[in-house]
Structure formats: structure tokens, C-alpha cells
Design goal:
The strands form two sheets. This protein has a seven-stranded mixed beta sheet, sandwiched between helices. By secondary structure, it is of the alpha/beta class. The protein has two domains: 3-98, Beta-Lactamase, CATH 3.30.450.90; 106-315, Rossmann fold, CATH 3.40.50. Helices cover 39% and strands 24% of the residues. The protein has helices at 3-12, 44-52, 57-66, 106-109, 114-119, 136-150, 185-192, 208-219, 233-242, 249-259, 288-295, 302-308, 317-326, 332-338, 342-352, and strands at 17-20, 27-30, 33-36, 68-75, 79-88, 91-98, 124-129, 154-159, 172-177, 199-202, 223-228, 260-270, 277-285. α13 packs antiparallel against α14.
Length: 357
Amino acid sequence: MDIRKLLEIAVESNASDLHLVVGSPPTLRIDGELVVMELDKLTPEKNKEMICSILNEVQKAKFEQEWELDFSMSIPGISRFRVNIYRSKDNVEAAFRIVGLRMKQPEELGLPLIINEFCRKRSGLVLVTGPTGVGKTTTMNSMIDLINRERSCRIVIIEDPIEYIHEHKKSIVIQREVYSDTRTFAAALVHSLRQDPNVICVGEMRDLETISTALTAAETGHLVLATLHTPDAIQTIDRVIDVFPPHAQTQIRIVLASAIEGVISQQLLPRIDGAGRVLTTEVLIATPALRNVIREAKTEQIPTIMQTNADLGMQMMDTSLKDLYVKNIISYETAISRVKDISHFKSLLMKSGKQFR
């Protein structure tokens, strides 16, 4: 069986990932769980042959030199894939993330309506956060597509690697891939400010220089969308500030308080009916009160602000989990395994009239 056929099966199985690991059969990740395919175990020779068959000469040379390789690829009519090739115990192995060909709209993904309002902002910083594999890139690209369909502007996207391909609609969309079109996120972000952008999208804010430049861009009249590997809104705010040296943090709090427009933290959870996974979200919206607690280094007050401003579209993760459980979309066990404050979660259930264990 060749790699194209394995990828076709992965797409047909609605898998999120395909793993090719020596000593194991090809393995899919479906609804968050690993599913081993009923095939022979992969040998070092077979695995290397399959993986190298999709590489061009430049990619082969780069992998031989660096022993790591990230890129994206397409199978026409099937899907796009994000690929990571690596070495393990002197074997060549790979992980494929299925991206898809069609851009889903926010409502299809189950995103809250406030996402549309974030996309219509003319400037400011909007962050999409969560652990690996919860669809942050999908969410960000869905937002980009919404802007592309609704607004006439210039969008610059910086990714590693490029996953979704955007056509020019109402907007002009420039997509730059790190290590292919530019050296680093930070360098591409700095130069993007000289490319007449209205919207700048950063695949991941990884370091101080990238975060600093993103804040500058948001503060100077651009809408900046970016992702971070943080689990909730409070830790997102703290992470942005803590990356700076202590002597600079007071000033950064002032800048962030002015620039931030919203934070969407998300998780993907297994549905109780077994029909895939469902998105659960935490939403933080910039209000005068929020900007004030950021400036004054009182981020511990953010949960209170979120709870008292639910009518604006703010939502804590525990509330989203409660709603999904009350609607019988997720199980109690799934919900309770992700809540941050069990006593608060149970009080929410009591108010809803839903029984709990």
C-alpha cells in the first residue's frame, strides 16, 4: 500500500491525523483516539521509502541536513495535509495532519457568534488559544475566510507551514510560509508592516520578538489574528506579558490593555453519541473593566468580569461544558474531566436543573 492510498483512507475515515511509525501498522487518530489500521507493521525500509516518495530534492536535502522537516502538501480532489517528518531511533517516521480542502464557516465549526464581531474589527489583537490538536488553525482560517468574503482589504498570513489555501475574494490574501518564503515569523511580521496590510495573521506567536511586533501592529491600526498554546483566557493574558523581561512588563500591560480585542480558548471533546467531536469555547471580550485589570496586573479578576458580562458574549469554559452536558452532547465524565472549578460547575448544573453525580 502506498502513502497516497493511506492518506485517502485517513480522509475517508474522517481522521484528523495519520501516523507512520516503524514497528507499528499505520495508525489513524479518529475523534481524538488512536486507531491502528489492519495492515502489516511498518519496517524501517518500507517507512522510509513511502515517506521519501513524497519529497522533492530540496526537501530531501533539507531533511538529511536537519533531520526534521515541516511542510504541507495536497492530493487534488482529496485533501490538504500538514506533514512533519522526523527521525526516531535512526528510523524515518512521519505525522500527517488532515487539513481539508473546503474552508468551513464559523457556524459550521460551532464557534460562538462573537467571532463574527471580532472579524469586523478594524484594529486590535484577537487570540485563538488551546492545546495542540483542538483546531486553532482551522478557527483562525475560518475567520480569515469570513474577512475575505465580507471586506475589501489586504490580508497577510504567516504560517509554518501553510495549511489552508485562500483565494482572493473581496480581499487580497498574501500567504507566506516560514522557511520557504521567509526566514522567521518575526522577520515576516516586521516586513509585513511595510506591505500595506489591513489584517495580519500569525500562525503562532512563539517568541518575544514575534509577540512584541504583533502588539505593535495591533496598536498601530492593524487587525492581528494569532494563535497561542495556552489553555484559557487568564493564562493567555499572563503568557503574553510574562514573555517580556520584568522591567518591560508594566509598559507591555499598557500596550496589551489597549490592543487586545478578544481571546477564544477552545477544546475538542468526544460527543456522547459517538458522532465525532464537538467544540467547546471560552470567550474573553475587551471591555473597559478588562483593560483596567490588565493595566493594573489584576488578571485574577478576569473570571468575575467574564461571569458578569455574559450578556456581551463572554463565556467561561466551565459554562460551555455545562451547556454541552445539559444538552446531552457530552457525557458527565467528559465534562468533569475538563472543568477548572468543580464546585462552580456543579452549582451551574443545579441552577439548570440537570442532575449530576
